[in-house]
Design a protein that fits this description.
7-stranded mixed sheet, Alpha-Beta Plaits, Ribosomal Protein S5, domain 2, single chain, 2 domains, 24% strand, alpha+beta, 4-stranded antiparallel sheet
Length: 332
């Protein structure tokens, strides 16, 4: 009980119902862990938002065995060694601060394809730690959970980053002002429709980072800072025109877009169809576009489909909205 008192933070606990001190002990819990869009064009490594669709399915149980046992129920052939598995690494980090817990058993069914650019690794890291936290009476804060999940992101990309992890856990749109120490700000964004196209190629996050320039011109940095500030202000003010003007990246997108067939055409045609703007989701190859209404989002989806049908490249689309909850409890 002392451990729960030490870590439990009532004002900042995901999946609070049924957990907490005095709550009925749970032995197993299932959650949906959402896809996410990171960077949001100009906000490289600092901005992200969660999607209502697609989601991974995650079930966590307390175990009498030491460590983390992983059962994969999909066809992605991910490692079951917890130190080499995104979910496993996140849970091992949590166990380091849970001397009263022997281990966890994880059952994972992924629907977010690895390498898709919509936060597959973040979903694998965020879902398990949120579910495990529920089993432990919500003793850890959301910020703690992001910290644990970042160990999973390091397995995936070699770098601890939180622009997918934070929105997956907090929900909505998040700004990561700082990684060390963690400083996460939730942004009260307007209702927006999100259209995503995933060309069926893989762009590994680690590879997409390797091609980035290590030095940039001051004039480009200044322009980028203006766009980031404008985008955050536009989201907070619910100013759609300012959001659209600020969705511009002069540093990362010009380099990474060469990895994505049809990128420039998709972006221009979707804006002609009425999208506020958009760009590469995470490290790609998925491309996202934001719209004010569903009709526009559907028109954007049609443009995306037409382009990849003509190119002759297999693709998948998602028409969804911003997920305001993050990881969602489905059963316990």
């Amino acid at each position: 009980m002392n451990l729960i008192k030490k870590y439990y933070t009532p004002s900042n606990t995901p999946l609070g119902e049924g957990g907490g001190e005095g709550g009925r002990a749970k032995k197993s819990v299932s959650v949906l862990s959402p896809a996410t869009v990171a960077n949001v064009v100009c906000g490289f490594d600092i901005l992200g938002f969660a999607l209502n669709n697609p989601n991974d399915e995650v079930t966590i149980s307390l175990s009498d065995e030491v460590g983390v046992q992983i059962i994969n129920q999909d066809d992605f052939d991910l490692p079951t060694d917890p130190e080499k598995n995104v979910s496993g690494a996140a849970l091992l980090a949590m166990l380091e601060e849970c001397p009263d817990v022997k281990g966890f058993t994880l059952i994972s069914k992924k629907h977010i394809k690895p390498g898709s650019g919509i936060g597959s690794s973040a979903a694998s890291a965020a879902g398990p730690v949120v579910a495990a936290n529920y089993l432990l009476g919500n003793r850890f804060s959301k910020e703690d959970l992001v910290r644990f999940a970042m160990f999973g992101e390091k397995v995936a990309s070699g770098v601890k980053h939180a622009d997918n992890i934070a929105p997956a856990i907090y929900g909505g749109v998040t700004l990561i002002r700082s990684i060390f120490p963690l400083d996460i700000i939730a942004i009260d964004a307007p209702e927006l429709y999100v259209t995503v196209v995933h060309p069926q190629i893989e762009v590994r996050t680690a590879d997409a980072r390797k091609i980035l320039k290590q030095n940039i011109l001051l004039k480009d940095a200044i322009k980028q800072w203006g766009n980031i500030a404008g985008l955050v202000a536009g989201l907070i003010k619910h100013d759609y025109e300012l959001i659209g003007r600020s969705l511009e990246d002069v540093i990362i997108e010009p380099v990474r877009s060469i990895l994505i067939p049809g990128f420039n055409e998709v972006k221009s045609k979707c804006k002609e169809a009425g999208a506020l703007g958009g760009g590469i989701s995470g490290s790609g190859p998925s491309i996202f576009m934001l719209s004010k209404d569903e009709a526009t989002a559907k028109a954007v989806e049609k443009e995306m489909s037409n382009i990849y049908e003509r190119i002759g490249l297999d693709y998948q689309t998602h028409l969804t909205t911003i997920n305001q909850e993050g990881v969602k409890l489905v059963s316990s």
